[in-house]
Amino acid sequence: MKEFWTSLASLMGVFAFCQTLVHAVFPPELRFGILKISNRIFNWFSSYCYFDITEIDGVNTNELYNAVQLYLSSSASITGSRVSLTRALNSSGFTYGLANNDSLVDSFNGITAYWEHVVTQRQSQTFSWRPLPDEKRGFSLKIKKKDKAYILKYYLDYVIEKANDIRRKNQDRLLYTNSRGGSLDSRGHPWESVPFKHPSTFDTLAMDPSKKTELMADLRDFADGQAFYQTTGRAWKRGYLLYGPPGTGKSSMIAAMANYLGYDIYDLELTEVNTNSELHKLLMKTTSKSIIVIEDIDCSINLSNRNKPNKKKQFETVQPEMRNAGGEDGGNSITLSGLLNFTDGLWSCCGSERIFVFTTNHIEKLDPALLRSGRMDMHIFMSYCSFPALKILLKNYLGLGEGDIEKNVLNELEEVVDEAKMTPADISEVLIKNRRNKKKAVLELLVALRVKKAEKNRIKNLIDVEEEEEEEEQEKRTLESPKEGGELVENCIKGNEELEEDLVMN
Predict the structure, then answer these.
(1) Which of 235, 345, 221, 343 minimizes the C-alpha distance to 292?
(2) Rounded to an integer, what distance in angstroms lies between the CA atom of residue 395 and that of residue 469?
(3) Confidence label for 368 from pLDDT (cuts 50, 70 and 90)
(4) What Rg do the C-alpha atoms of the chain give, in angstroms?
(5) For residues 286 and 300, what is the distance between their CA atoms, to the nearest angstrom?
(6) CA angle 89, 236, 251 (to 5 degrees)
(7) Closest by CA position to 395, among listed 154, 204, 198, 133
(8) What is the average pLDDT across 207-212?
(9) pLDDT tens digits for 470-505?
(10) Which protein family is named in the record (predicted)?
């Protein structure tokens, strides 16, 4: 054993002497050139190539580094033996990541990618206008040379897309409002945001199940339709018009759409916007994967149907640009053409994967230009509560299924609910008020539906009586009209005869 250590010491001495001799004989430039040529020869014969993705690119943060870190978190939580665990601000979930100097193997369409999280100590700097972290972090990507073109063209875009999905799922959704109109804050943003915590989902939404399934399929096709929209040359956006009586769940529908897709909501208040340019500015500051909402659009600004004649201005030319109340004092205002360009013009293409949702209680008041396909692609009628929707409300508020309610009571509910024409909001209020006593809640609801049905029938009977009386008066006028018509004809004949006599006399 002693001879081994003696030989090793002699070998280390020879190695140190040779290193000193090389440094003394060969200048640094020559040594660097030889090392560079050796690396090129090694890379020439190697079947792999390497890519370094550093955390900081110069003085800016490298977004690709953050994307790779998020993307690898899904695999690191399963395959990694040592992982880092983080939770970002406004995040509802934990994020896993590769630990320092740990590696992971990923597969994409049959291609293998080797990732390594490289962490080294940063050399101390004498002066820096921006303090840098003590550790230098980055990812090293190792792939085969034959896969280089495919990886650069498809794989990295896939990594960024999946990272955005993970970030959106982990983060709390936000609700934006333009309370300042189009003015910017200190950061240059015209929108103010608050966390969006609305609990409405398609499972809890009181709506006909067939219509609900159709809408969910349409939303999923839109979210997964990037290739389709690019192939057809259409802007990646879609418009929905929700119309119907108040209290039928239009706002709850918007919340369910946002929770289903994981999109943020921009609640656009048109009365706070003064000009078309401010409207365009607001659109440019919205993000992709968002829902832009204009609620009660018929009440926000004057966008009435231009096809309807106006009795007060029947001899005036109807202007195609309807202005809001802000224009009455002589200032600028939003025009209909500006809103149309906002939803389906060149300005609507400044982003991607956006959904426009308009709500109204009176669809007949809206201009047809707003309703056509391309602006409002899908019209959804939010009707009064039907029996399938009623069963959903009973399940949500009372936890009662069909088997938990007496058969005769359930049958009577089915008979009266369509004729009563109560909104889901009214029915929900009855159930909430009596939710501590489930049996009483169901009976109270049945009584309320009966009363509402009787009231509807009474109103209908009054309308029928008025129509009958109107028809009888119309018949009386018709019977009296021949006599009046005969007298009128006789007077006309006498007048013509007198006129002919005057002509002959002259």
Answers:
(1) 343
(2) 47
(3) confident
(4) 37
(5) 21
(6) 60
(7) 204
(8) 90
(9) 777 777 777 666 555 555 445 655 555 554 555 445
(10) Belongs to the AAA ATPase family. BCS1 subfamily.
- What residue ranges do the domains of the chain occupy? 18-170, 174-304+334-381, 387-471
Query: What's the fold here for domain 174-304+334-381?
Result: Rossmann fold (3.40.50)
Grouping H, G, I as helix, E, B as strand and the rest as coil, residue 199 is coil
d(CA 384, CA 382): 7
Largest CA distance in the chain: 161
Where in 361-466 does DSSP place strands (E)?
378-381
Cβ 270 vs Cβ 335: under 8 Å: no
Could you give the residue ranges of the DSSP H alpha helices within 171-316? 209-223, 226-232, 250-261, 276-284, 297-300
List the single range of 76-90, 301-315, 336-350, 355-369 with lowest mean pLDDT. Answer: 301-315
Q: How far apart are the C-alpha atoms of 387 and 399, rounded to whole Å?
A: 16
Separation of CA 428 from chain center: 27
Measured distance CA(75)–CA(70) in Å, rounded: 10
d(CA 57, CA 73): 22
Sign of CA dihedral 182, 185, 190, 194: negative
Dist. CA 174–CA 201, nearest whole Å: 16
Helix residue ranges per DSSP H, 46-155? 63-79, 148-150
> Is the pLDDT reported for residue 68 higher than 70?
yes
CA dist 388 and 395 (Å) reads 11
Residue 365 in tokens: 């008041």
pLDDT tens figures, 217-226: 999 999 989 8
Residue pLDDT, tens place only, 216-269: 999 999 998 988 988 988 888 999 999 999 999 999 999 999 999 989 999 998
Nearest CA to 285 among 266, 269, 310, 312?
266
Q: Which amino acid is at 2?
A: K
